[in-house]
């Protein structure tokens, strides 16, 4: 994978679309090149379907780390600390929680050697008091589209009918 492939993947993630025209506008890569490269990424298994999901394992981001983070409490601090946690390279999800920990953070990393740097970046955030991180050894379920876990009946009850 080269820089153009990486630019295309970043654009897909940012724009939430695989439209060649949109990616061309974002990256400056001609849409014919975008189309060709996306087809190649699909053939290689990096883009796993027409919805442009990225197979992180094929890409080399096959280590998932889940971290619990405790931080100092101050008014508005959770948004600030959460934002800083989200800015750490590799972090994909940040959840502000209630209970014994303040944040649950999920990161996808290229290997074990990057975990120490991840934790060090967390601990450089002034308000962070404590971290506890775990490697995921096996993924039991990872549904990227939560609507697949909701019945049609439940979904219908969530969204009012526009005709009513």
Describe this structure in words.
There is one protein chain. Helices cover 39% and strands 18% of the residues. The radius of gyration is 19 Å and the shape is globular. With 164 residues, the chain is of the alpha+beta class. A four-stranded antiparallel beta sheet has the order 2-3-1-4, covered by helices on one side. It folds into two domains: 3-58; 63-135, 2-Layer Sandwich (Alpha-Beta Plaits). It has helices at 3-15, 20-27, 31-43, 56-59, 77-86, 115-123, 152-158; strands at residues 63-71, 91-96, 103-109, 128-135.
Please tell me the CATH architecture of the largest domain by its name: 2-Layer Sandwich
Write the H/E string, N to C.
HHHHEHEEHEH
Q: Alpha-carbon distance between the termini?
A: 50 Å
Please identify the top-level CATH class of the largest domain. Alpha Beta
Q: What radius of gyration results from the CA coordinates?
A: 19 Å
How helical, in percent, are the residues?
25-40%
CATH topology of the largest domain: Alpha-Beta Plaits
Shape: globular
Domain count, please report it.
Answer: 2
Number of helices: 7
Q: Ranges with pLDDT <50 over ≥5 residues?
A: none
Number of strands: 4
Neighbour order of strands in the largest sheet: 2-3-1-4
Strand content: 15-25%
Biggest β-sheet strands, sense, barrel:
4 strands, antiparallel
- CATH homologous superfamily label of the largest domain: Lrp/AsnC effector binding domain/regulation of amino acid metabolism (RAM) domain
